[in-house]
Amino acid sequence: MRALLVVNPAATTTSARVREVIGTALSSDLKLEVATTEYRGHARDLARRAAESGEVRVVVALGGDGTVNEVVNGLLHHGPDPDGLPRLAVVPGGSTNVFARALGLPNDPVEATGALLDALRADSSRTVGLGLVSGTEGTEDEGVPSRWFTFCAGLGFDAGVVGRVEQQRELGKRSTHALYLRQVARQFLADPHRRHGTITLEQPEQDPQSGLTMAIVCNTAPWTYLGNRPVYASPEASFDTALDLLAVRKMSTMSATRYATQLLRSTPERGLTGKNALTLHDLTDFTLQSQAPLPFQVDGDHLGLRTSATFTGVRRALRVIV
To answer: 58, 83, 148, 249: which could form a disulfide with 3 (CB 3.0–4.6 Å)?
Structure first.
């Protein structure tokens, strides 16, 4: 079986030696081509060419959630076709690896490679639903290219935190829990919209809901991890349904502390609750509009400021080896 291994050499939890071991192991069962990414978006381009070739049966992403997101966007460049496109396989190599862990894969890259080889030999795979976000017609974001996401997107506070963490990592800081928590505190103190939300949720045949200060769109649960602790923003979110939405209308110091505590204690049965929390399940189509430009992120990748984003939940978008 012909396969492409897309390797991110900057993946934070793998060394050159580990990547070589993984490539050798996969070569024992696959006719493997190895490609190392050289620039932002390169994994997307490699996966797109593999899909268009009609010869590659499996594309393996070795890296973090950003690498996986690029590979997914390359595979789905011409739209979903779970039975016609190459299957996706993931070997986690980032600091969090939400998508891989949500699929049930070990977080250790060598162990995950062993699980992947077992799945290939058993011809074991599943289809997953994905989210698609695009620019909203009639707004300044109308021409923004569409982007697929595997586990989450966010407008407002959480995206601001992601942007701050990225800035620190570009300065050479390691991605640690302490770094993340510091940026949460700084974003909270600096956010001018946390008390008076600027976001409006619009759904077909539904009244708009305005005054939202933050919106997190989930495609699966958990939403993220703090080390080995899973965090469930939308416990009902699943790869088998469309999208879930968690939004907050305002964040005072007291309510933010309460929400943080709830998230740290969240479980598959219990997420975030409260009179200023809005939770919606299995949404196929909706739009978020903001009166002011807000930070925006997709799968943990900060994409700058946006005033609008239109979301579509696509069931059975891609076949994944598990």
So the answer is: 58
Q: What is the pLDDT of residues 219-240, one digit of tens each?
A: 999 999 988 899 999 999 999 9
Instruction: State the Cα–Cα distance between residues 173 and 165, nearest whole angstrom.
Output: 9
Every domain of the chain with CATH number 3.40.50.10330 lies at: 2-123
Q: How far apart are CA 81 and CA 188, in angstroms?
A: 41
Give the 3-state secondary structure percentages of the chain, helix then strand then coil, rounded to 5: 30, 35, 35
Range in 9-23, 86-100, 144-158 the model is least confident about = 9-23
For residue 178, the model assigns a pLDDT of 83
Q: Which fold has domain 2-123?
A: Rossmann fold (3.40.50)
Task: Please answer whether residues 184 and 127 qualify as being in contact, where contact means their C-beta atoms are separated by less than 8 angstroms.
Answer: no
Burial of 190 per CB tally in 10 Å (0-12, 13-18, 19+): exposed
Whole-number pLDDT of residue 172? 85
Tokens at 49, concatenated: 């060419």
How is 151-196 classified by DSSP, letter by letter? SEEEEEHHHHHHHHHHHHHHTT----HHHHHHHHHHHHHH-TTSSS
What is d(CA 273, CA 218) in angstroms, rounded to the nearest whole number? 16
pLDDT tens for 106-115 read: 999 999 999 9
Q: pLDDT by residue (tens digit) across 259-277?
A: 999 999 999 999 999 889 9
The domain defined by 131-314 carries CATH number 3.40.50.720:
no
Write the DSSP assignment of 193-251 as a string of letters: TSSS--EEEE-TTS--EEEESEEEEESSS--EEETTEEE-SSTT--TTS-EEEEEES--
Q: Quick one: which of 214, 191, 211, 189 has its CA closest to 200?
A: 211
CB neighbours of residue 62 within 10 Å: 32
Quick one: DSSP state of residue 267?
A: B
Question: In this model, does residue 177 exceed pLDDT 80?
Answer: no
Six token digits for residue 258: 């309460």
* Cα separation, 210 vs 199, whole angstroms: 6
Range list for CATH 2.60.200.40 in the chain: 131-314
